[in-house]
Automatic annotation (TrEMBL):
Gene3D superfamilies: 1.20.1050.10, Glutaredoxin (3.40.30.10). InterPro entries: Glutathione-S-Trfase_C_sf, Glutathione_S-Trfase_N, GST_UstS-like_C, Thioredoxin-like_sf. Residues 118-222 form the Glutathione S-transferase UstS-like C-terminal domain. Residues 22-94 form the GST N-terminal domain. Pfam families: GST_C_7 (PF22041), GST_N_2 (PF13409). It comes from the Eukaryota. This is GST N-terminal domain-containing protein. It comes from Apiospora aurea.
Length: 245
């Protein structure tokens, strides 16, 4: 394939035992690459190797949070290196403008804010204890050590005493999820995406988040994908999610 023989982009992704992309933020980048049909190759990094690898590329560290994170890319023709899904999206859109991917919009801003406020916390508690299961032993040790230091308790405690605690959290956001799902369908008459017939970065954010859930745990994926709007966007993005590695 040309995408493997003559890559214009080297994409640094997060490794897992399934050997496919599962990070939601990397999926935002990957969806743009696939949609725009930009030739690229993937370099999967284990958690403990991210900082050393990206530092060696000359990337400056983040000022807050983790110093080095994926996604990161190398644009081969210009030897440009970038880290972070938003800077990468801006670069890809300016360098490869056709077909266009709207990066911002008024409904997109509202959807992003509502999704992060409502779905984000519940998804994190459901996925983080399960994510460790699809990591290599080296990454499992790193992930557990760093995340448990951050949250101050064992990962499994996030699931609660039993399945009832997790179910209660999802039940508590059911109404908001229904409302957000309906809002995603505002332009349903024009097409399945947030802005109608063509995808935007917001659609890739939603589809990537659902694909992350599906890779980590099918049950968590079903909790969200059952809602119209979320399901429609995920299914509409499937042609751009065929390549996962």
């Amino acid at each position: 394939m040309a995408a493997q023989e003559t890559p214009e982009i080297v994409l640094y992704d997060l490794a897992c035992t399934k050997n496919i992309c599962f990070s939601p933020v990397v999926w935002c980048t990957r969806l743009m690459l696939n949609y725009k049909q930009i030739p690229y190759k993937t370099v999967f990094l284990e958690f403990p190797d991210i900082e050393a690898t990206l530092e060696e590329l000359g990337l400056p560290p983040n000022e807050t949070g983790h110093k080095y994170t994926v996604p990161a890319i190398q644009h081969v023709p210009t030897a440009t290196h970038l880290m972070g899904s938003i800077p990468i999206a801006q670069f890809l859109e300016s360098t490869y403008p056709d077909p266009p991917v709207p990066l911002t919009s008024e409904p997109g801003s509202e959807i992003g804010a509502r999704a992060r406020a409502v779905v984000g916390p519940v998804m994190t508690k459901s996925l983080m204890p399960r994510e460790v299961r699809i990591l290599s032993p080296r990454s499992q040790e790193y992930f557990r050590r760093t995340r448990e230091a951050s949250i101050g308790r064992p990962l499994e405690d996030l699931l609660g005493e039993g399945t009832d605690d997790e179910q209660q959290r999802w039940d508590a956001v059911d109404e908001e999820l229904r409302g957000l799902g309906a809002f995603l369908q505002t332009r349903k008459a024009e097409g399945p995406f947030v802005l109608g017939a063509r995808p935007s970065y917001t659609d890739f954010f939603i589809a990537g988040s659902l694909q992350c859930a599906r890779t980590v745990d099918e049950g968590v994926f079903k909790r969200i994908s059952k809602y119209p709007g979320f399901k429609d966007i995920y299914e509409a993005c499937q042609p751009y999610m065929e390549r996962k590695d």
